[in-house]
Amino acid sequence: xxxxxxxxxxxxxxxxxxxxxxxxxxxxxxxxxxxxxxxxxxxxxxxxxxxxxxxxxxxxxxxxxxxxxxxxxxxxxxxxxxxxxxxxxxxxxxxxxxxxxxxxxxxxxxxxxxxxxxxxxxxxxxxxxxxxxxxxxxxxxxxxxxxxxxxxxxxxxxxxxxxxxxxxxxxxxxxxxxxxxxxxxxxxxxxxxxxxxxxxxxxxxxxxxxxxxxxxxxxxxxxxxxxxxxxxxxxxxxxxxxxxxxxxxxxxxxxxxxxxxxxxxxxxxxxxxxxxxxxxxxxxxxxxxxxxxxxxxxxxxxxxxxxxxxxxxxxxxxxxxxxxxxx
Amino acid sequence: xxxxxxxxxxxxxxxxxxxxxxxxxxxxxxxxxxxxxxxxxxxxxxxxxxxxxxxxxxxxxxxxxxxxxxxxxxxxxxxxxxxxxxxxxxxxxxxxxxxxxxxxxxxxxxxxxxxxxxxxxxxxxxxxxxxxxxxxxxxxxxxxxxxxxxxxxxxxxxxxxxxxxxxxxxxxxxxxxxxxxxxxxxxxxxxxxxxxxxxxxxxxxxxxxxxxxxxxxxxxxxxxxxxxxxxxxxxxxxxxxxxxxxxxxxxxxxxxxxxxxxxxxxxxxxxxxxxxxxxxxxxxxxxxxxxxxxxxxxxxxxxxxxxxxxxxxxxxxxxxxxxxxxxxxxxxxxxxxxxxxxxxxxxxxxxxxxxxxxxxxxxxxxx
Lengths: 327, 367
Prior knowledge:
The structure holds 2 protein chains of 2 kinds.
Chain A: E1 11-22, E2 25-36, E3 40-44, H1 51-59, E4 66-71, E5 74-76, H2 80-83, E6 87-90, H3 102-112, H4 117-130, H5 146-158, E7 164-168, H6 176-191, E8 195-200, H7 203-207, E9 211-216, E10 219-224, H8 226-232, E11 237-241, H9 245-253, E12 258-264, E13 267-272, H10 279-289, E14 295-298, H11 303-310
Parallel strand pairs in A: 3-8, 3-9, 6-7, 7-8
Antiparallel strand pairs in A: 1-2, 1-4, 4-5, 9-10, 11-13, 11-14, 12-13
Chain B: H1 2-18, H2 20-37, E1 48-54, H3 59-70, E2 74-80, H4 83-91, E3 97-101, H5 105-111, E4 117-122, H6 126-137, H7 148-153, E5 158-163, H8 170-201, H9 203-207, H10 214-244, H11 252-276, H12 280-297, H13 309-316, H14 319-333, H15 337-361
């Protein structure tokens, strides 16, 4: 297989048919991934969709039931041990020691990664500076806020300067401002040459990735850059301005070509099942036929539309949207 | 390698320093239990290994030996021809009771003014001492052919001479045993909790994703507890000497060396429990489960000699059984390193076996 040539260096991660079953449940189902180096790559999906399981397999912490994965040229889990120094992993649940201080935690990790003694101190000072932990040096980790813990966890994952960083829902326990700061830091790390794989269920975070894979029930439902994913469903989103939400919803939901209707304040967001030449006109004619007041116009799709379009099987039991077959 | 082991050990020390309750238990448990147990436990026992020095070699003396056997308290298995040889058997731990029948046994029996024979007892075990006393009070057929009135006025057939603990004070037997039992109880529990805690709090996912090797993790985990074990044994021995006047007959260096091997073996048992359990509560329960047989079968409560063969074989697999013998040997009988070696090497073997098992059972994976 092509995975036998790790030298090409184009991809930080490459998987073929990666599958993991837990008893009767298939958590990850034949996932093919190609994650380029020096990018931020996102896994977007709801809880339980298989994001964490995939990351754990890529770290060598779980054995795939089927398929194979090459991470930075190492086959996992076979060569997982030699991979350890090259990857950093920030777990979904905070996994540093609550009863140790910030600096003590970092010192422990520096020793475990056997950083050279000469540069150990400076490296710890450096990450504490970079992740704004200097004033918290002596603070017991258990008493810190979500955002502070998250910065420490990231500092810990970066202490040995890994080439590839796995972040499993890093922002799930922090406030919006910390989230923004956190992403600024990720772009700094990217500038320093780190490849970052981040899982999230926030649309705004997914939108900031170079590329992303939308994951549902262990499948990659769609993948590509956020822009290309949105372009692919151009002509599928219509916005309706109306006073009579109930009637609009009733009129549209019964149409086989309507995938979903969502209320956004004083507007209705309508997602069609397929791309149409004149989507606004189609919606408008239905409303007129049913005698419902309202104005429809074509709207540029956002990432949430993409997400709904490619997942969700379809309310009318139709086949998954055709945009699923990515690149 | 050494750096990572020391990093783990250092981290464990810091956890301990911050866990006030556990820290208190390190000193509190030995203090409390030594005081509580300081007041002996006595039990009737049967089938103790005995040695006989029959210096009389008469019909009556042979009858006495048979009568002693018939009580089922002793099994006279060894027959030697001098008191010195009998004492050697006792010191080596091959027999628990020695029966000395003096050359003038027949005369003594007839005159009846002093005990006709003597029991030598390993006084380092309270239950043995009690058994000897029981034996000495039984009426023997050799003494009954005369009038029964006589019998009542006579002193017992046997006089008892306790070696190693002449006054027969229970604290003297109990304190060395307590060292072994307290160390077993606290150390298994501490190590059992230490790895499970990492699982429970989610630290393990981070730890197994680092270059740390399983054996480095395991050795690093037990180092702080070896130090703690030494602190505990020192507390108990100090209490024994200061409060209960326990004499320490043998060499302390010898004792502390043996203690180190025992502590490592017991901690490894905790690691095996830890690799198996999923929660701290489970680890706690399994530890209690391993503790009970160790207390009951090690010879701390019931003498080893009195147990059925199958139980004895099982007891040999428990580190505490060996350490109990070593402790009683060194502290009470002044045994030399060569004399306790037969119990030290099994501790090494148990340590290596349990450590290997713990490393093998631990996976650097989540599945």
